[in-house]
Amino acid sequence: MSEEDSTMTTTTEPVRRGVSPTALPTRLRDLVARRIPWRSLEAPFYTDPDVFALDIEAIFGRSWIFAAAEAEIPEPGDYVTITLGRYSLIVVRDDDEQVRAFHNVCRHRGARLLMEDRGSVGNIVCAYHSWTYGVDGSLRFAESQSADFDASCYGLRHVHVRTVAGLVFLCLAQETPEDFDEVAGIVEDYVGPHDLTHAKVAAQIDLVERCNWKLTMENNRECYHCAGHPELNCSIFPVYGYTPENLPPRLQGDAERLRTATAEAIRTYDALGLPYAAREELDTRTTGYRIEREALDGAGESITVDGAAAVRRLLAGFPTAKLGRLGLHLQPNSWFHFMADHAVAFTALPISPDRTLVRSTWLVHADAVEGEDYDVESLTHVWKATNLQDAGFVERAQLGVSSPAYLPGPYSSTEYQVEAFVNWYIGRLATLPAFSEQVDGLQPAVHGDLTW
After folding, report:
1. How many angstroms separate the CA atoms of 426 and 428, rounded?
2. Which domains does the chain carry?
3. What is the mean pLDDT of the chain?
């Protein structure tokens, strides 16, 4: 048996007794099949343990998942661990400075290898019986084995890993989505100029939201609730998702400032050769995404309380801080903001049907000096406040969908990205063999003209 045969993962294993992507209970197939477009999902999607188990296998197990920034593992032996439902994964930089990923499971009797969220190792040593693995995943030591023991058959089980513009993505599936190369090329074109491969982590904050992961993502995909984010509204125009036709009178002034700021920003982007046009395929491909460079309010430089840059040492040696923000959404669980002075990466990691870990990571130039070039509190203030506000909103949502009185309600036209996320999610479930004869291809959401 080759090492490749012995280490590659598969997504066909049952995740709970009676629940697997290839043989689903009728109630789950019916739940997916009867979803009504432009309405929120039925309660079991947010509360049922079997749906949660299916999400881990069929969504997180078959998609490219943002796991970490390369800056989190700058040196050989540096690692982070990621938890996705029952899976624990290791992301490590090997001795050749390549990023690798493995299941966090000893090949002897299955003990968990690394218990910490992050750290640095020379080798990966199991604390149970001392089986020892290199950071390339190869088994280097296993005491008292038989004469015919072949260590090459017992390396760590590999997980597909890709780095894109300084961001690390994992895929648990044996066969990865075929469209990722194309999406990765688009992301590289837009994000590459920020040179995150020469960045460092200035701060990272984990927040457990008391809700299903889909409620976290739905909340992220709309600004219908943004009146509840006063700190964020200092720099981000609160017209996200609106069109000139459905813009309420209270936001007319914001829209006019955005038009003026956009015209100025485009002149700067053109002069620097930075791509900025919106590109969006949220629910029309396997690797759904949206990316756009756009103006910021206030000083127009960063997501801070006044819109001014929070870091004196700019990323990539940009000649100006006034580059607005580059926003990126990736299905199923991540979103990003890239500015001239720093970047923020967010990932939503499902813990249980009603708990989600939201990890926020702030990246700055590798040579920026804390206390001289930036202050961590000023850098993180807006998103710390916004994340806590969002945690309150989604907890309310979880409590509501858990009530017997809950019925799916209609999305506003401003929530088109929520519809696109849910449509993508249902569409991915519908591609499972268990649905092949029951759910036809779903239609993408109809999006409005977002030109201001």
Report:
1. 5
2. 3-162+414-435 (2.102.10.10), 182-401 (3.90.380.10)
3. 92
